[in-house]
């Protein structure tokens, strides 16, 4: 669906602007991703080659030795880029209306959510069905504990640790350990994860 500037809703989405999640392009992309992740989620541990082929078709980029344990869910797939050796445990959700980049060696616990989808704070704009996306960047060798939620626009630096169940609302520096809701730096007197 094009607005007065002639761009489709998908073009606006990919540009990080306000858009409506409607129109034939967006609908087709959502159906494509759902078809692929349903097939992926039906595979078993012995289906490594099939899993690799599905991920190569579903995702924007997949490095070597990537493991995504099913079930795995995403919006579009093509906005997800995974570096070499990325591991994600069962039940992860990557809402990729904007880019999700996960660098080499990152380890992601079960039921982690990486959520690029965002909505306007202005209720008038929300009533119009507008939304937007902000990219998420996860550095190399990051460890994200189970059940953590990374919100739109967050960058997590290399070697950082996100505690299980944390809600990350702002950037995390390299080598930092954060935990809680909202996630805050761990004090040295706190017990380990």
Automatic annotation (TrEMBL):
It comes from the Bacteria. InterPro entries: Hexapep (IPR001451), Hexapep_transf_CS (IPR018357), Hexapeptide_acetyltransf (IPR051159), Mac_dom (IPR024688), Trimer_LpxA-like_sf (IPR011004). Keywords: Acyltransferase, Repeat, Transferase. GO terms for cellular component: cytosol. GO terms for molecular function: acetyltransferase activity; O-acyltransferase activity. Residues 10-64 form the Maltose/galactoside acetyltransferase domain. PROSITE patterns: HEXAPEP_TRANSFERASES (PS00101). Pfam families: Hexapep, Mac. Belongs to the transferase hexapeptide repeat family. Acetyltransferase implicated in the O-acetylation of Nod factors. This is Nodulation protein L.
């Amino acid at each position: 669906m094009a607005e007065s500037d002639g761009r489709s809703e998908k073009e606006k989405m990919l540009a990080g602007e306000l858009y409506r999640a409607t129109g034939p392009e967006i609908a087709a992309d959502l159906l494509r991703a759902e078809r692929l992740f349903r097939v992926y989620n039906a595979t078993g541990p012995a289906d490594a080659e099939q899993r690799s082929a599905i991920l190569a078709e579903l995702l924007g980029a997949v490095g070597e030795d990537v493991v995504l344990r099913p079930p795995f869910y995403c919006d579009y797939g093509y906005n997800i880029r995974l570096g070499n050796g990325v591991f994600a445990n069962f039940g992860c959700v990557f809402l990729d209306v904007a880019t999700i980049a996960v660098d080499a060696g990152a380890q992601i616990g079960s039921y982690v959510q990486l959520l690029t989808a965002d909505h306007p704070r202005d209720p008038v704009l929300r009533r119009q069905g507008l939304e937007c996306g902000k990219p998420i960047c996860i550095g190399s060798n990051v460890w994200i504990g189970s059940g953590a939620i990374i919100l739109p626009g967050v960058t997590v630096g290399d070697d950082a640790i996100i505690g299980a169940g944390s809600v990350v609302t702002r950037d995390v520096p390299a080598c930092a350990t954060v935990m809680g809701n909202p996630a805050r730096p761990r004090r040295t007197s706190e017990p380990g994860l």
